[in-house]
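Possible regression after last week's pipeline update?

I re-ran a chain I had predicted before the update to compare outputs. Posting the input and the new output here so someone can diff against the archived version. Not blocking, just want to make sure nothing changed silently.
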Amino acid sequence: MKKNKKIYILTSGSYSDYIIEAVCSTRQLAQELKLANSWEIEEYTIDARNNDFQEAKELIKRGYKNYIVRMTRSGEVTQIKNGRDCWESISDIIGSKRDKTDLGFDFGGILYCFILAKNDAQAIKIANDKRAFLITNNQWEK
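New output (post-update):
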């Protein structure tokens, strides 16, 4: 049986400025980066049997970030953020949906999508495709 593994997330900022700066597999490296950059360390235990974590690790290596995009029915982007501001980790998004997105509606009928993308433009395109699908299939919440 594989042992659970710890990872160390280095962050900066707070609330709307909160962002993940780095992810480390050792406490020593995390401490060095913390001292060099005045970042905070968050420690997480990862289930070593969880394939979502391995997939997330590969996506991070390929340049993907977690995004949240909020969009009106007409396609206006009301918010786009990436990093820890999204409050769903990459592995959470992978675990929840095989197509690498998770979505729902805020009060007022604003679509929100948690997305894995390489940049803002790609995240917006994915959210817009989801928006179009929901409208076409009469699934947009009233």
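Follow-up from reviewer: compared with the archived run. The chain has two domains: 5-49, 65-136. Marking as no regression found.
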